[in-house]
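Running log. JK asked me to keep both predictions on one page so they can be read side by side. First protein, sequence followed by its tokens:
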Amino acid sequence: MYKVNFDLAASARKEMVQDGFAPDFPPGTEEQLASVKAKPAPAVDSAADHSIRDLRNLLWSSIDNDTSRDLDQIEVAERVANGIRVLVGIADVDFDVPAGSPIDQHAAQETVTVYTAVHNFPMLPEVLSTDLTSLAENQDRLAVVIEFVVDSGGLIASSTIYRAVVRNKAQLAYNAVGAWLEGRSGPDAKVAASAELQAQLKLQDEAAVKLRAQRHRLGALNFDRVEAVATISDGHVSDVTAAQKTRANDLIEDFMVAANEVMARTLKESGTSSIRRVVKTPERWPRIVELAAKYGTSLPANPDAGALGAFLESRHKADPDHYADISLAIVKLMGPGEYVMSKAGETGEGHFGLAAQDYTHSTAPNRRYADLVTQRLIKALLSKTAAPYSDSDLEAIARNCTAKEDAARKVERVMAKRVAAVAMQGRVGQHFQAIVTGVTPKGTFVRLLDPPVEGILWKGQQGADVGDKFDVTLTSTNPERGYLDFARWLS
């Protein structure tokens, strides 16, 4: 058994380097940051670009994780004659990070912020991503605003994109807002203090529910995957718990998806080449059909998102305990998303999981380089200037973003296992309820119901199959390798 003082932070940095990342910012970063800090924000009324609107008076709010400071997205809504008008404000990161600058070159190489429980490796210096380019509460910030009207059927009736100066009036958290929207608790102090904010959030939720229902009618898939969250105090991991997805998470996700669709369609209709986010039609559809058949469901021979969505919904209702596992299996069989260059005038591949033909990433420019590139493309379109990237540039960027996203997932997956192994060191010998998640030539794998960690069943695995539930004993942990070993417990 390994000692509790295993250095997770050092192992995270080592893993980053091994997987092709450069955790340190390049020479010239501090000079550029000093220039950004001294840079005045544009005066809206006298700006040369009169298309920058002043929307600081609106009741903007953000909803994110409890500890998030790199805020990319804020929202506000109003009821109009033909539905609900939604405004999604996206941090104008490009204003402070010009293309080709030292910080931009580093971001172009890294392409993504990598989150590990013990340390985050930001794509942009934190003085930018968590301060100067973050849509922080009570700060005037430049934003790209994606505006659309959601009609009574959940369709986007009209849309437009423009630049604005905004002010986040309320920085909120998923857990508190979600519990309130679901009726599990009262509002937190910030929401309770403002009847206007309460009405605003309920209106946003109403629009989000309509958007979600329409997406599901079109065949969008609804996955439910267990996400483990580590409890860390003074750098030490003490526990791992399951993150609970709430109605507030859904609200932000629904607005994000709608905003990304509007952005993709706007660029497409203007004849601008862009970067798209696609999930291709599953090549392993026959295996998905085979898996569904085990549960008594017959899926069509050809890929059908609507039929798959109906199957997933039926499994969620029939067996919620195992739904996370069937979700994970389907996600793996569908294959990962990827970035591709979409040439002007061409339709290209869509996003199978969202049942969306036109989709991009644009709502997180502080954390993803593809979103920053998309922001530059739309700003060029708005200002009627030449696109800042050639098709070959976009193709190379898309390829690198996909590769680095895959690498980031690997780092995060490895570190999640190491964190779990450290958190569980003091619980060797204890009994837990577990579900079998995989039976392979390498071994039989189980996931505990609480805490939601995974490991290998090295004793008592005979006859165990995916979906079986029984008690296990934790026999050992290995933080360096991220291993948890279990034995079946017979009381």
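And the second, directly underneath as requested:
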Amino acid sequence: MQTEDKGVIRKRYISWVVSMIAIVFYPSVFMYFQNMSEGHFVEILPSVGKNLILAAVLFVIFLVLLRNVGKAVLTGEIALLIFMNFNTILGAVKKLIPGMRKAYFFVIVAVVLFLVLWLVNRKIKETENLCTVIGIVFVVLIIFNIVTAIPQVVENNTRAVVAEQENDITEKTFSGDKPNVYFYLFDEYAGFENIEHYYDYDNSEFADFLADRGFNISYGSHNTESIWTSTIVPNILNLSYVASDEIYSIDNMARSENAYLYQLFANNGYQINMVNHLNTFSDTNCNVLNYKQKKENLSTYVLDNGIWSEIDSFISWAQQKLSGKSNDYYTNLSDVLTIMENITDYTSADQPTFTFAYAECPHEYFTFDEDGNRIAKEDETNWKDKSVYLNQYKYITKCIEKIVENIQKNDPDAVIVLMSDHGARYPHWQVDHYGAKAYDASVETVYMQNILNCVYYKGEKLDIEGMTSINTWRTVLNTYFGTDYEMLRAPEGFKASTGY
């Protein structure tokens, strides 16, 4: 009888451990198996490790409070599910209650956990079966995702092969001069149609500035395949439609790895420089001029959904207070813009330089007022008040003007390409952030896809009006570097998911 009792106890403990570990592993394993072709298994270890620590801490806390192992496990698992999906749940709540603040949500979570603690302690006598069921569910989910990931991987690999064939990735030799090339991309910078439509703002003063300095300006350019950076920019960097909204965003972003545009210039003797705000894109074989800032990988996506992002923010805030130094978003973005303004200081003296400079701006988080001063923290994601985006837009416009002036002063024979991936997505954010009614996507998506698209090379004329970013780049390469790229037909029929 005693041996049997030990066996039962052993099985019970195994059930509890397996249940807790399955919960911890599931989101990381899910992320890996959905991105096997692009990520590496070791990338999930940080998220697994941190969530195992979280699970252990929660178990110890509830064991002290409840003095019962089974109840501590069950309560810990419920708390673990909440904390591992903290920001995901918060995002869903914000859609229902647009005015919900994070501080209020913390209070709600505390109340929920108190109720769970009371129910488990007072109402649930036997926890083993519940924990076993939870464990079985998550083990089945892990197995299910392993199985279903296989065809997705095959499909993604097939897309990659097709894209490579379409790109015709072979070494193309440039003819003529090899000027330095500066490619600036500002995330969510509204095109001329976009900013007038949504903000009733006439940006013709900026257009006049560019025209006076010899730029070719497209007022009606649109990137028609999407309104998402993760789809649009990998396409631009590969001069072809290698990414789409039908593919996981992390897979799309992985297509920036050693992108074709980098290869093309490197094969023609260029140094490849990069300003990579927030480490947004792959920097393989690039000379990165900024950071080190937050590096994205599979674990990042898992941890950002949960409480760890809040813990990291608190630790960062505490370190800043103790050290008296600032390393927040405002400071990082300011540093990036300073590097972008002084970009000619980083060109090679021995070879021509191709620079890709990206800033997540005027995209939220909103950071600056019209004069570049820090705005109130509560306005960092404020799309309701139109002046918040517009003021940051005006400030970034001033920054672009300084960038242009400095490049033309210090490197007058350079090629300068100014673009945005998409325009201000005002109607989308009204739905996403504030629960507004769905908009007419057939009308509004076109405006949201209107981009900044301007090219300069020694004042020479170049007809880019109405071109997509991809065809603009193909035209630049054909005209100034002697390549023979065909123009690509832009995808049609895309409608943003928050429209009708």
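Observation for JK regarding the second prediction: The radius of gyration is 26 Å.
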